[in-house]
Design a protein that fits this description.
single chain; 398 residues; alpha/beta; five-stranded mixed β-sheet; 38% helix; globular; binds adenosine monophosphate
Length: 398
């Protein structure tokens, strides 16, 4: 019988599941949201009726309900042969995916201080699947792992060295699975090998980050110790002057509150005063809403500056790649961003850009562009499924 791979992505109040077959084709996916509240609900993709969840359902309850629903639907005929988990922070411990055992779980727990909002929920997903499937090999795939190749000049902050030595304060970078996927997919589309392909990859979703990938290896990235640094995001500010904390303390706003504001009330939402959603802001801007126009302008200008910054880590550039909900769908953002970079020689083809590269192998650059520009739909779930299958096979139970 077919061996299936289950991919689990746990957020603080959400759970995303995807099931792949052994040819790594996705056969079903589902989403549970508002977990641990009385509005908890779950839905299988393509099914109109929601999957019933009890009020206050936990990650574990939702997982069990959705796995039962997959079984009733006939999409999952037996227990999965391998389970892959997205884990946000692997610190300096994990340079690649790891087969879960007690030691690995302890190390992920030890990294929780670096990602207090993420690692504990990822661990609760791991605990739920281990309870449900104690004999199935499980694998952790880390958002930070792909960036563990950053050279010291890119990962060190210019801070007292003891902060790094004693508390591991450094730049880690996130969205690594997506940047990895873009680098491999770009190499494939350009008919090159990953080890000879250098790209700048921009992951633009609710969270946004950009990376320089030289010969298939991450050498710089915009996110840092936490996923707050760098680009403007949906509700996150990205870079600000660290002097802001002291300035606002003088106005009676404590650091903890500034931190909340920088994470949850800033970015596109803060600038526009309306929405964290780029599609809504583009509609508003089209109707003359000036704050939304400003939010898009700041977003694109910051992104353009970072494209330039990433060039400092490369000796050649084979492609600039866009992905994520905004990167894949917003011709406006791509056009506006690259309009700041004419000096570097980026030129878009208007029609290809408007079609999001769908009919041109992802290419959206014009014939006169100095560098190829690509749109590549990201697929982090596929990378997690592939890693889960690869490592589970080393246990020879698949
Ligand atoms: P993600 O986190 O990757 O799902 O991306 C979410 C972001 O993508 C939100 O800001 C959406 O508004 C944005 N997005 C999705 N589709 C479009 C579109 N057609 N045009 C502009 N932004 C879009």
């Amino acid at each position: 019988m077919e061996a299936n791979i289950l991919v689990v992505n746990c957020g603080s109040s959400s759970l995303k599941l995807a099931v792949f077959n052994s040819r790594l084709e996705k056969i079903v996916s589902a989403l549970a949201e508002r977990l641990d509240t009385d509005e908890a609900f779950a839905r299988i993709a393509g099914v109109d009726e929601p999957t019933a969840l009890p009020s206050g359902a936990s990650h574990q309850t939702a997982l069990r309900a959705l796995m039962d629903a997959f079984r009733n639907q006939g999409t999952l005929k037996q227990d999965p042969a391998a389970i892959g988990h997205r884990v946000v922070h692997g610190g300096e411990t994990f340079r690649e995916a790891a087969l879960l055992d007690e030691d690995v779980i302890k190390s992920i727990t030890d990294c929780s201080g670096l990602a207090p909002l993420h690692n504990p929920v990822n661990l609760s997903g791991i605990s739920a699947t281990r309870n449900l499937y104690p004999h199935v090999p499980q694998v952790a795939v880390f958002d930070t792992a792909f960036h563990q190749t950053l050279p010291p000049r890119a990962f060190h902050y210019a801070l007292p060295e003891a902060y790094y030595r004693d508390w591991a304060v450094r730049r880690y970078g996130f969205h690594g699975t997506s940047h990895y996927f873009m680098s491999r997919e770009a190499a494939r589309l350009l008919d090159r090998t990953p080890a000879t392909t250098s790209i700048i990859s921009a992951h633009l979703g609710n969270g946004c980050s950009i990376s320089a990938i030289r010969d298939g290896i991450s050498v710089d990235t915009s996110m840092g110790l936490t996923p707050l640094e760098g680009l403007v995001m949906g509700t996150r500010s990205g870079d600000v002057d660290p002097g802001l904390f002291d300035f606002l303390a003088g106005k009676g706003i404590p650091a903890s509150e500034v931190h909340e504001v920088l994470n949850k009330e800033s970015g596109l939402l803060g600038l526009s005063g309306q929405s964290n959603d780029m599609r809504s802001l583009c509609d508003l801007a089209d109707h003359g809403h000036k704050p939304s126009e400003l939010a898009i302008d700041v977003f694109c200008f910051r992104l353009a500056k970072y494209v330039g910054a990433m060039m400092a880590s490369l000796t050649t550039l084979d492609a600039l790649v866009f992905t994520g909900g905004i990167g894949e769908n917003s011709s406006r953002v791509r056009h506006q961003t690259l309009s700041h970079l004419r000096l570097l020689g980026f030129e878009l083809d208007h029609d290809l850009n408007n079609c999001n590269g769908l009919y041109s192998d992802g290419r959206i650059d014009s014939a006169s562009s100095r560098f190829p520009v690509l749109v590549i739909p990201t697929n982090e779930e596929l990378v997690i499924a592939r890693e889960a299958l690869r490592l589970a096979e080393t246990t020879q139970t698949v």
